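Thread: quick sanity check before group meeting

JM: Hey all, I'm pulling together slides for Thursday and realized we never actually wrote out the predicted structure for the chain we discussed last week. Dropping the sequence here so it's in one place. If anyone has concerns about the input, flag it before I start.
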Amino acid sequence: MAIITKWTSKLTSKAQGDAAEAQALAHLLQQGLQLVRRNYRVARGPKARGGEIDLIMREPDGTLVFVEVRQRSRSAEGGAAASISAVKRASVVFAAQHFLGALGTLPPCRFDVVAIDSGKVQWLRAAFDVS
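JM (edit): ok, ran it. Output follows.
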């Protein structure tokens, strides 16, 4: 029975993450952005961790926006936005560099965060940069 409970809770976590991404996507679409790609993943190698971008969006002016979505049911310890570590930022930047490498011309880009705390959506534009 314990194995089933553990497996079920993992599905619930995945479903919660998917729901948060869907909520973030709906919010950004309402703001006029267009979806380019969802859940872009890239591997580094057998021993090194790769990168992932939750949403890649495009602003009406052509700016490419790499979006990290974070959700927290409680805002303890700074909430969803504060949960993005330097390692996570580096992972998103790595994946973005890989994505951009496939483009012929580099558009203006930025890294945004959509933080969802207790159901409230907060869009943080230019939340971090490559440095």
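AS: nice. The chain has three helices and five strands. Residues 2-30 form the longest helix (29 residues).
JM: adding both to the slides.
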